[in-house]
Structure formats: C-alpha cells, structure tokens
Write a structure and sequence with these properties.
Layout (H helix, E strand, L loop, with lengths): L1 H12 L2 H8 L3 H15 L4 E3 L4 E3 L1 H28 L2 E7 L1 H18 L3 E7 L13 E6 L7 E15 H5 L13 E5 L6 H7 L9 E5 L2 H9 L4 E5 H9 L3 E2 L8 E9 L4 H25 L12
Helix pairs in contact: 1-2, 1-3, 1-4, 2-3
Family: Belongs to the LysR transcriptional regulatory family.
Protein name: LysR substrate-binding domain-containing protein
Keywords: DNA-binding, Membrane, Transcription, Transcription regulation, Transmembrane, Transmembrane helix
Length: 305
Amino acid sequence: MNALRAFEAAGRHVSFTKAAAELGVTHGAVSRQVASLEAWLGVPLFRRTAAQLALTDAGREYLAELTPMLNQLALVSMQLKDRAAPAVLRVNAPPTFAMRWLIPRLPGFQLKRPDVEVLLTTSLAPVNFDEGKYDIAIAGAHEPLSGCVSRPFMTELIVPVCHVDLVETNGLTEPAGLAHHALLSYATEPYSWPDWLAAVGLPRLRPRSSLKFEQMFFALQAAVGGLGVVLVPLFLAIDDIIAGRLCTPFGLLAARQRQYFANTPRTNAVMESFWDWLRREGRDTEQSIEQWTAGRPGAPVPDSE
C-alpha cells in the first residue's frame, strides 16, 4: 500500500518532491517505493531524465485505474469510521427540569444507546433552532411548538407544595391558611399564585409575605428549606414528597395541566430513539404519580388552557 500511495501521489503531481511533501516523507522514500513497485510489476511507470519526470504509457493507464480505487477505499473507510464513532445528540432543556428529572434518568438512555453521546445544555430562552445550538429542545407548553416536529411525552400537573412542617406543625390544611405563610414564586412560572387563588375562590387572599426567585430550582429549594409554599410541577417534587421533605397540602386542588414536548426541526434515527426513550420515561413518571395520588384530596384536574 505504501508503494501504491507513493506512485499515485507522484503520478498525480508528476513530481517525487511534491508527492513527498503530500505524504510527509522524503524525496528518496518516494523514489524507493516507486522503484520497488516497478520491480514487482516488471514494467517502468516513469521515464526519468535529469531535467524531467514523465509517466510512461503503462504508468498513465495504471494511474487512471489506481486513483479511483484509492479514493473509493478512503471513502468506505471513512464511512465505516463514522458509523463506529459515537453519534452526537445535542439536547437543550429548562435548568430545573434537567437537574431534577432528565439527568437522573440519562444513564438509562446511555445503557440503551451507548453509541450516542448526549450533549446537554440548559436554557430558559424560547426555542430557536436557527442558532444551530441543539438538535432537540425540551419545553413545557399547552400546545405543540409550530414550525417543527413537536411531540408531547409527559403530562405536567402544577400544584402547591411545601415542607411537611407547615402542615404537621403549623396546620396548613386549607387554602385560606396561606394568609399566614409566604408564597414563593419565580420568573418563569407557568401558573401564578393569583391564578391559583382565583381558581379556589380566594382571589382577595393576601399572604403573610412573598418571595420571588429567578428560577424554579431556587424557589423549590426554598420550599424544601421551609420558607413557604410554591407552585411547581408535581413530577419535579415527587422525589422529595416520597422522601418526606415536601408535601402537597391541598392535594390536586386546582391543579394546572400542561404537556412537556420534545421539539426538533427534523428527525432521524438517533432522535427517534431518544424520543421513544423520553416517552417511556414520561409514561413511567405519570404512572408513579397516579399511584401515589390515588385517593388523595382535591378537585378533578382541569383541562389545559
């Protein structure tokens, strides 16, 4: 192969010097490889004079057949290498969703598809595929995102949650009791306290105090710390609820329903695999919440608005 590559480069450039530069070897190495090939073939491939190097007729015919063969060999080799290399899937998701739901489950996808490398980024900005920064964008919404492939994979129930001490020690069992507690909110909340209070017939209720945070994650952590009550997706708090750190003081009363969508400008086999995995994980999460909430107090969950 070294002799063939040396001859092909020398024949293409009609120069041992240029062939040596292309291959990263010396002029003498190319000359020796070509001489070795000519000896093996028993046919001269070049006419050598002090002033000029030229291909023989046999050399031109051999080069015309050899160059396409080497190009094809390089192509199929690169195709095989690309298939063997991990596929890269760039996923973008809201920060709290990524930290509390997606990341803990990602090892399951990696076990299923070890050939796919997931590059995860987080953002609160509207989905924008024109920037070319991600292949799949996960977002909570009431409707599919227009202008792209937008598929729901999990239903979200937004409910008030708080530290168990607010119920067990301070007796927070009715919505009217919120007047004696702090209401926690965050800049990107999809369901505001005024909306929830209006839904339970308490539009004029005034809490003891209010705390507002930039991101849901901080507001949720404040609730874990016992600072007040926050409206968050139940599936993001369920682990803390099961562990006894948080609770839903009013059950599913006036819960707001949304969907989580996986959005992509186009689809391929890797994206379809990730979408199927998301759908199964979302279904498992929904079933776990349904089992946990069975028989708990609260009005029927309203339709999405």
